[in-house]
Design brief:
One of its GO terms (molecular function) is oxidoreductase activity, acting on paired donors, with incorporation or reduction of molecular oxygen, reduced ascorbate as one donor, and incorporation of one atom of oxygen. This is Copper type II ascorbate-dependent monooxygenase C-terminal domain-containing protein. Pfam families: Cu2_monoox_C (PF03712). The protein is mainly beta. The chain folds into 2 domains: 95 residues, Jelly Rolls; 142 residues, Sandwich (Jelly Rolls). The protein contains 2 helices and 17 strands. Strands 1, 4, 6, 7, 11, 14, 16 and 17 form an 8-stranded mixed sheet that branches. Strand 8 and strand 9 form a beta hairpin. The chain is globular.
Length: 248
């Protein structure tokens, strides 16, 4: 399948969140079924392609881009507010095409198992080695005790902020206000006040290029962390995310 757009259809007063999964085989073949945490028959052969939360603006995919997936099924999970008696079924508008657009969407995974529990930090840094990409959204994962998280690009001794978030915000895809380009030899580094963390960066690249298969893993360039450390890295954003980007 070639996905070029996913647009949630919702009433913000009635729908709490919408999550979209790609599955090799759905958990149920019924058109309408309830599930707890397993939308797909085999979660190892599935992925989350899109998320929307009621108080967070929907992420917009760049025009002229597509996401190629070998999965055959799309499963949409919609959770309504429990106090709402809903008489309307909401969902998503998903656009699939046959022709190949100019740009390809992919996911770049950033994760670490280099945990320093005494410091309550999970630091990672890496050097990107693949073809150019443009990061346009970020998905954040952590524990319930996490506070602040930031992701930076270091190029030619200059630091560029990609995203700064509060880990008390919902686990969700967040739009990067200004897409950030990443090229070979750039360094990526984090600032995180937590011991467990994973970041999934959604990007687009030229379709003739191969999708980068590498991941940013562990803290191999600790000198980058020590040398390029913004003074406000541990300051937790207090303003709610919706207020921060309501004019985008």
């Amino acid at each position: 399948m070639k996905l070029v757009d996913i647009h949630p259809i919702y009433n913000r007063q009635k729908v709490r969140f919408i999550t979209t999964y790609l599955c090799q085989q759905p958990f149920s073949s019924q058109a309408d079924f309830w599930f707890d945490s397993q939308p797909c028959d085999n979660m190892d052969r599935s992925m989350t392609i899109y998320e929307w939360y009621y108080n967070i603006p929907a992420v917009k995919w760049p025009k002229g881009c597509f996401y190629f997936t070998p999965f055959l099924y799309v499963v949409i999970q919609i959770q309504y507010f429990p106090s709402i008696i809903n008489d309307v079924v909401y969902g998503e508008k998903i656009i699939l095409i046959r022709e190949r657009p100019k740009y390809t969407i992919g996911t770049y995974q950033i994760v670490t198992n280099s945990i320093e529990i005494q410091k309550t930090r999970a630091e990672f840094s890496c050097q990107y080695r693949s073809l150019p990409m443009q990061i346009f959204s970020i998905e954040l994962y952590s524990t319930d005790e996490g506070k602040s998280i930031s992701l930076y690009r270091v190029r030619n001794r200059e630091v560029q902020s990609i995203i700064k978030g509060n880990l008390q915000w919902p686990e969700n895809f967040y739009q990067v206000t200004n897409p950030v380009d990443i090229i070979a030899s750039d360094y990526l580094r984090n600032a995180l006040s937590e011991v467990i963390c994973q970041i999934n960066a959604r990007f687009w690249t030229e379709h003739d290029d191969e999708i980068p298969m590498e991941i940013c893993w562990n803290n191999h360039y600790s000198r980058i962390l020590n040398r390029y450390l913004p003074v406000d890295e541990q300051i937790v954003p207090e303003t709610h995310y919706l207020i921060l980007i309501q004019h985008i």
